UniProtKB/TrEMBL annotation:
The keyword Zinc-finger does not apply. The keyword Oxidoreductase applies. It comes from the Bacteria. Pfam families: 2OG-FeII_Oxy_3. Keywords: Dioxygenase, Oxidoreductase. InterPro entries: Pro_4_hyd_alph, Pro_4_hyd_alph_FE2OG_OXY. This is 2OG-Fe(II) oxygenase.
């Protein structure tokens, strides 16, 4: 993906240990369609945060890349990710999946890539509504394992970040009966065409 000067503007833009994290709101008009589709999706308890927590699997469903690139949500994501590109260097997707978490699930801190890879993760919150009291935030940590940023689920919110930033999605609180869907698209650095 080449640089795009018309990439959407972020509602939050910060660096964590020199690594970018940007939050975008209001990009996805048809959230209800995605939520309804996910309610029928075949989730399996196969995803792990990191090798030493492998006995604690959580729910996920994979999306094939050839199907992903035909979806309108991918075009929106591509436009945002283009804002992270530099001359001669872009990004290409290599994995896409949706996680679902509910009260009582155990999720662990992790990174999505090694520090020198500079991959990007695009994480969509797919919910029709979300109450602050429901919890479910994604916590991002600095190199000293201090919370550097918390991103609250909101309908159609997108957060794009360097995959080497340690993070964790917190499960919803006990008063929340809605599933916490997060749709992740992982991008690796690639030479721009």
């Amino acid at each position: 993906m080449a640089a795009n000067p018309a990439a959407p503007a972020a509602s939050r833009d910060l660096l964590i240990d020199g690594r970018p994290l940007r939050v975008f709101d209001g990009l996805l008009p048809n959230i209800a369609e995605y939520v309804q589709g996910l309610a029928r999706a075949p989730f399996t308890r196969t995803e792990i945060a990191r090798p030493e927590t492998a006995e604690y699997k959580h729910w996920a469903t994979e999306i094939k890349l050839e199907a992903l690139v035909r979806q309108p949500i991918f075009e929106l994501t591509r436009q945002v990710v283009a804002g992270f590109c530099t001359p001669g260097m872009g990004y290409r997707p290599y994995r896409a999946y949706t996680n679902v978490a509910s009260y009582g699930d155990m999720l662990f801190t992790h990174t999505d890539c090694l520090p020198d890879q500079h991959d990007l993760t695009a994480l969509w919150y797919l919910c029709e509504r979300w109450d602050l009291e429901w919890g479910g935030e994604t916590m991002f940590y600095d190199a000293q394992d201090e919370v550097a940023c918390a991103v609250t689920p909101r309908p159609g919110r997108l957060v794009v970040f360097d995959g080497a930033i340690k993070h964790v999605g917190r499960p919803p609180n006990r008063i929340c009966y809605a599933p916490r869907y997060t749709f992740a698209i992982k991008f690796e650095r690639a030479a721009a065409p």
